[in-house]
Every structure is written in structure tokens, then in C-alpha cells.
């Protein structure tokens, strides 16, 4: 949207909100609704800035005794701040402080769904800040778990799936240096599986593929005594993701998934009855995937990832040569 046209729309909204025929509460709600319209699928940061301007104006005209309306306007402002692109963390920290400030009033006065939505967004703020060392990831997990009291699998499947995915990524971002780390890895796997109970290939293929890819990664790296079983389950998850992520339609996502699958094959032991031959087959398949991924990454201007898979390919080539030499070695028979 052109900046000039956007400015005119904002001015028109502000003028409409000054209409003497409307009560202060009605004007505040009008400004909030227009802000929500600008914020929904914004085409530029200007639209988000304009939405924040409208929310601030709404707060100035909203009667002080209407605590719930003020909290709703503040919640919308906080979500706009979350969406604001920036280099630092100023906007996201302000959004967090707003959500924390309005939570008591939402809990007391708002619907359960409104409160749960605010908890979910608070969790997102904290998780973003935790990634740069500005918050504790455990506080994000607590916010997601509070939201799940309302957003259940049966009543709100879409929100439930989002929360389970967020929980899983939060668990995996925590240090895995002790026994509790193993438990968090298992909880991440469980959360991805819970999300996949409501996200289907038919209804939401892109989300389904993302969750299957993430589940595969979690299974591949989870500390467990069932390494072979987890790796086989991971391969199944990657194959599910590849039903959606094709080279033609989603080349980068496809390359990411086949790289993950290659790594899983690399670490997969051969069959017990013929382990060397099975190992060789797994390594050969991994090499094919890594080479294809490198080709795609280079074609789409990502030399960093191309270098990573290239180094993996060279390591696999060396392992295949060593394995070939082992298989060619004559067997000594003992009487």
C-alpha cells in the first residue's frame, strides 16, 4: 500500500473517530477495529506503524473505567509490536511488558479464549527474547501450558497445534546436559506428535510437512536407548514431509528435508545379519541426497548450506571407501 494512501486512510479513520455522534467507547472500538484491519496481513512496516498509531489514539479516548476495552486495545497493540521488524528487541520487550501488565484484567474480565490468546502471544515474546539471552525459556513454556488449559485439541485444534509446535521448539532450545535434558527431548517429540493429531496432510499440507520434518529432527537427536527405532521413525516422518515438500514446488524446504534424511541414513546402522552391506546402502543413499541438496542450495544462492552438505558428502565418500576396502578383504576360515 502506498505511503500517501495509507496516511490518508489513517487520517480519515482519526476524523471518523472524532464524530460527535459516537460515544468515547464507540470511538475507541472504531479505532481499534481499523487498526486490526491495517495489521492483518500487512504489506509493509508502515501499516503496522499506522495500526500502532490508531491503537494509541484509541487508548486516549477510551474511558478509564472501561478496563476490559483498554486491555483489549493494549493486547492488539502488543501483537502489532510483535510483528514489527527491527534489529534489536525493543518492540518485542515492550510487547511482553504489555501482555504481562494486562493479564490480571484479562483473567478477571475477558473470555477464556482472549486470555489464552494473550498467554500464547506472551509465550512467543518470551521465546523470541530467550533466543537472544533476554528471557528465560521456561517462562515461555509456562505461558504456553497456561494457554493449553483453554486451547484443547477438541475445542481449538488450530491453536492447540500451534502451541504444541511452540512447546516442542522451546523444549529443544533448552540445554540437554543432564537427565532433565533427556526428558525435555522426549517431551518435544510428544508435542510434535500431539500437533500432528490435528494437522493433516489434506487440510493443511504446508504445516503438516513442517511438523513432520521437525518431528524427524527431534526423533533423530533424542537421547534414547531405542536409537534404531527412533531413526526409522524419523525416516518415516521425513518421507511424510516430502509428500508436500517437492523440488518443483518448495525447493529450499525440500533440500532441508532431504539433508535431514541424509543425516539420519548416515547414522543408521545396517541390518544385523549383514551390517556392512546394509551400512553401505544407507551411506550411498545419504550421499545421493546430500549431493542433490547441495545442487539446490547453490542454485538458490545459499552457499553456506551448500558447503555444510558438501563437507558431509566428502566424509561419507571416505567412509564408503573404507567400507569397500573392508568388504573386499578376504575372509580367514578357522577350523
UniProtKB/TrEMBL annotation:
Gene3D superfamilies named in the record: Tetratricopeptide repeat domain (1.25.40.10)
Keywords: Plasmid
Record-given protein name: Tetratricopeptide repeat protein
Species this chain originates from: Bradyrhizobium guangzhouense
Highest classification ranks of the organism: Bacteria, Pseudomonadati, Pseudomonadota, Alphaproteobacteria, Hyphomicrobiales
Amino acid at each position: 500500500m502506498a505511503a500517501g494512501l495509507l496516511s490518508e486512510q489513517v487520517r480519515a479513520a482519526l476524523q471518523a473517530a472524532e464524530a460527535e455522534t459516537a460515544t468515547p467507547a464507540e470511538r475507541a472500538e472504531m479505532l481499534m477495529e481499523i487498526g486490526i484491519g491495517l495489521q492483518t496481513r500487512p504489506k509493509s512496516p508502515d501499516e503496522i506503524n499506522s495500526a500502532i498509531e490508531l491503537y494509541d489514539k484509541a487508548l486516549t479516548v477510551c474511558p478509564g473505567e472501561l478496563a476490559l476495552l483498554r486491555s483489549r486495545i493494549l493486547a492488539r497493540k502488543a501483537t502489532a509490536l510483535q510483528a514489527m521488524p527491527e534489529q534489536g528487541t525493543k518492540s518485542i520487550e515492550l510487547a511482553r511488558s504489555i501482555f504481562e501488565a494486562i493479564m490480571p484484567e484479562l483473567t478477571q474480565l475477558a473470555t477464556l479464549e482472549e486470555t489464552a490468546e494473550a498467554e500464547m502471544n506472551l509465550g512467543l515474546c518470551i521465546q523470541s527474547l530467550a533466543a537472544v539471552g533476554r528471557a528465560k525459556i521456561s517462562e515461555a513454556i509456562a505461558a504456553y501450558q497456561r494457554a493449553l488449559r483453554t486451547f484443547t485439541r477438541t475445542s481449538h485444534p488450530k491453536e492447540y497445534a500451534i502451541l504444541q509446535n511452540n512447546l516442542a521448539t522451546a523444549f529443544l532450545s533448552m540445554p540437554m546436559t543432564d537427565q532433565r535434558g533427556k526428558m525435555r527431548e522426549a517431551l518435544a517429540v510428544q508435542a510434535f506428535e500431539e500437533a500432528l493429531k490435528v494437522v493433516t496432510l489434506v487440510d493443511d499440507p504446508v504445516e503438516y510437512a513442517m511438523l513432520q520434518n521437525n518431528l524427524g529432527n527431534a526423533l533423530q537427536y533424542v537421547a534414547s536407548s531405542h536409537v534404531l527405532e527412533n531413526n526409522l521413525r524419523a525416516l518415516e516422518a521425513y518421507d511424510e514431509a516430502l509428500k508436500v515438500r517437492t523440488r518443483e514446488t518448495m525447493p529450499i524446504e525440500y533440500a532441508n528435508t532431504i539433508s535431514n534424511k541424509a543425516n539420519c541414513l548416515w547414522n543408521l546402522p545396517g541390518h544385523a545379519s549383514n551390517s556392512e552391506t546394509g551400512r553401505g546402502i544407507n551411506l550411498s543413499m545419504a550421499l545421493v541426497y546430500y549431493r542433490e541438496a547441495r545442487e539446490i542450495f547453490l542454485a538458490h544462492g545459499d552457499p553456506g548450506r551448500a558447503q555444510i552438505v558438501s563437507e558431509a558428502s566428502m566424509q561419507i565418500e571416505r567412509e564408503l571407501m573404507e567400507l569397500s576396502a573392508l568388504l573386499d578383504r578376504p575372509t580367514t576360515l578357522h577350523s
